[in-house]
Specification:
Strand content: 15-25%
GO molecular function: exoribonuclease II activity; RNA binding
Helix content: 25-40%
Catalytic activity: Exonucleolytic cleavage in the 3'- to 5'-direction to yield nucleoside 5'-phosphates
Number of helices: 19
EC number: 3.1.13.1
InterPro entries: CSD, CSD2, NA-bd_OB-fold, RNase_B_OB_dom, RNase_II/R, RNase_II/R_CS, RNase_II/RNase_R, RNase_R
Protein name: Ribonuclease R
Number of strands: 33
Oligomer: single chain
Length: 789
Amino acid sequence: MEEHQMEDRLLEVLRAQKEQTFSLDDLEAAIHLDGADAFKEMVKALVRLEDKGDIIRTKKNRYALPEKMDYIKGTFRAHERGFGFVLPEEKDLDDIFIPPTEVNDAMNGDLVLANITKRKGDNLAEGTISKIVERKTTQLVGTYMEDLVGDGIVIPDDKRVFGEVHVDLADGLKPVDGHKVIVELTEYAHSHNRARGVVKMIIGHRNDPGVDILSIIHKHGIETVFSDAVMKEANATEDAINPDEIGSRRDLRDQVIITIDGADAKDLDDAITVTKLENGHFKLGVHIADVTHYVKEGSELDKEASSRATSVYLVDRVIPMLPHRLSNGICSLNPKVDRFTMSCEMEIDETGHVVSHEIFESIIKTTERMTYTDVNAILVENDAELRKKYAHIIPMLEDMFDLSKHLHEKREARGAIDFDAKEARVLVDEKGRPEQVVLRSRSAGERLIEEFMLAANETVAEHFHWMDVPFIYRIHEDPKEDKLARFFEFITNFGLVVKGTSNQVHPAALQQVLDEVKGKPEEMVISTVMLRSMQQAKYDTVSAGHFGLATDFYTHFTSPIRRYPDLMVHRLIREYLIKGDVSEETLAKRAEELPDIAEHSSKMERRAIEAERETDELKKTEFMVDKVGEKFKGIISSVTNFGLFIELENTIEGLVHVSAMKGDYYQFHQNMLAMIGERTGRVYRIGDEVEVEVTKVDVDAREIDFALISEGKEGGKTKFQKQKPISKTRAFKEKGNRPNKRRKQESSKNEKQADGDWYTKPKKKKKKAFYESVAKKGQPKNSKKKKRR
C-alpha cells in the first residue's frame, strides 16, 4: 500500500468517529490490517500525520483529530506588538488569538498547531502554539550591523519578526555596517537562542537613493526581473496585429471607441463606447484587452503571470505582471492602433438595468486616448477649449455621463455601500524623495469608468453563474456577526439604529447609516468603523455574491493586463462560450485547478496591498521630516489605549501618545472609541477635529509623533470618572514600548481585545510597604484627604 493510501485510510477512520480517540489496536482493527509489515506501515503513517499536524497523539498514546483535543491547524499571523492570530485551515472556524507569551518562537506565516486554552463567548478563542508544523519564512530583509563583540547581526525590517538574526560571516557575502541585505535563515530561533543565517544579497546602503523601496520589494518577496525564458517569449511576440489572425472576430474598428485613464497610465486595459438607441435605451460596449491571445496557457509567460498574479503599483514604480513589451505594447489599447479585444456589449434601460447582453471576440481601433482630468473638465467644468478640441466625441461623452448616473442610481437603489474614502498620492523626484502629497479626485470621469466596469463585471459573472460551469468570481462575504454587533453597539453612541440584526442585515441598511451622517462631524468615524467591520473581498470558485456592491453576481473581467484572475476569466470565456468546449474532461480539469488559482491570487493581492501601503507610509513619513514644529488640523482617525491617531487633511497619520496628553489622566473606553479625562471628563473621540503640532518624525520606524494643541470636548461627570485610574508612572514607562508600526486598516476581531490589555491596573501596595515609605519620606501633603482607593 502506498504511503498516501495508508494516511487516507487512517484519516477516514478518525473522521468517521470524530468524538473518539483510538489506540494502535483500535486503528489496526478498523482498517483491517494483516501482518507485521502492514502494522509497521500504519505506525509510520501515524508519525507522518502527526508531524503534519493532521492528527494528535495523547499522553496515553491514543490518536484523534486535532479538533477533538481542542487543537486547530492553521497559519500564524504575527503582529508587531508580540501577539498574533492563527487562521484555521478549516474556513468555518474563527481565528484564535495568541498572546505574546504563547507564540513559542513561531514566525509570521508559519503553519502551526494551536491548542485552545480559553474561550470567551461563542466566537472568541485564545490559545497557545503547541507545534510548528512547517516553517514558511526562509529569508529576511534587514539592516546589517556589527554588535559590541564584532559579530554581525541583521535587524529585520519586518517588525513582526522578533529579535535579531546572527550572521555567519564565514559563509555568504560580507556586508558593511548599514547595508540593507537579504539573509537566508540556516537556524530558527528557539528558547532563548536567536536565529542564524548567511547574507545572500546586498541590496545597497540604507542611505542610498531607492534602497528603501527596494528593501520593501524584497521584504515581500516580489519579483522585479523576468527570467530569460519569459523574456524570450515576450520578445518573440509581434508588436502589431497580424491580419491573418483576425479570423472570425467582430470588426468594430469603424466605431467611436475611447479609453479614459490617468494621464500617466501606460497599460490601458479597457475601452468604451456608448450609443443611444431608438427605444430610449443605451448600448454600452466595454472592450477589454485580449491578453490570452498572446499569453498561451502553459507558456512561460503564463506561468510567470500566474505566479505574480497581479501588478504592483508603488510610489515611484510599477512592477508589472507581464513584461512591458506586452503590458505597455501589443496588449495595451493604445490610441488609434488596431488591437484584439474581448467585448461585452450591453443594452441598458433608463433604470440602469441590463436587459440584454453579448460577449464576443473583437478587434477595435480607439478614436481617442482620454484622461480623467480632461473628461472631468469637459463634463463638469464645461471647458470651452477642450469641448472644441474633442467636439467629435462630446455627444457620446454626455451620453456616457447620463448612463453612468442611471447605473449609479440603480446601485444606490439596491443598497450598494459607497464609502468614498479619501486617497492620497505621494509625488517623488527622480531620486525618490517625496515632494508633495496630493489627494486623488473621484469626479465624473473616474465614476463613469467605475460604473461601466462594474456593469461589465456583473454581467459576465451572471452569465457564467447560470451556465453552471467552473469559474472564478470576486466575492465579498457578509460581515461576521460579532464584528457587526460591535459596530451596531458603537453607533448607538450617536443615536443611530440599524434596521436588521447582526446575523442578518442588508447592505442598504448600512448605506442608510452613511446617508444619515453625511456632512456631519461623525461621518468619517462611522464610515471608518463600518469599513473595519467588513470582511475582505477575495477570489473564489463559488458564486457567493458581493455584499458591499449588493449584487448576487460579480467577477473581475476588466483588467487582464494587471490581474491574473481577469486573464483566467477571459480564457474560460473563450473555452466555454466561443469554442463551446463544456466537455466533462474540460469541466473536471477547471474544477480541479481554479480553487488554487483563486486562493493564490487572493494571497498575492494582499501581498501587493501590503507593499503598496508600506511604501506610502515610508514616503509620507519622509515628507514630514522637515515639518517638525509645524501645526496642522486633522481628525482623530483611531483611538487606542495607548493614544490617539490623528489623520491630517492630506491623509498623513501620526500618534498623540497617551503620556503626551497633558492636563489630566485619560482612560480608553473601547465601546465609545474615546479617551476620557478622569478629572475633567474631557473627551477625545474618533472623528473629532483637533489641531496638532509635529514633535518627532522617525523614518526607520515609520512613526510621526504629534502633540495636541486644541482641547477635546467638554464632558460633565460621567460613570467613567468613577473607575480606578491606571498608574501615571506606568503610562509614561509604556511610551518607550509602544508599537513601532501603525495600526492596520483591517484588524482581526480579537485585536481590539488585545489593545484593551495593553495597560493593566496597578497592583495595590500593601499597607506595610506604604507606611514604611511614608516614614522615610515624611507625611505626604493632604494625605488624609487624598487617601487612594
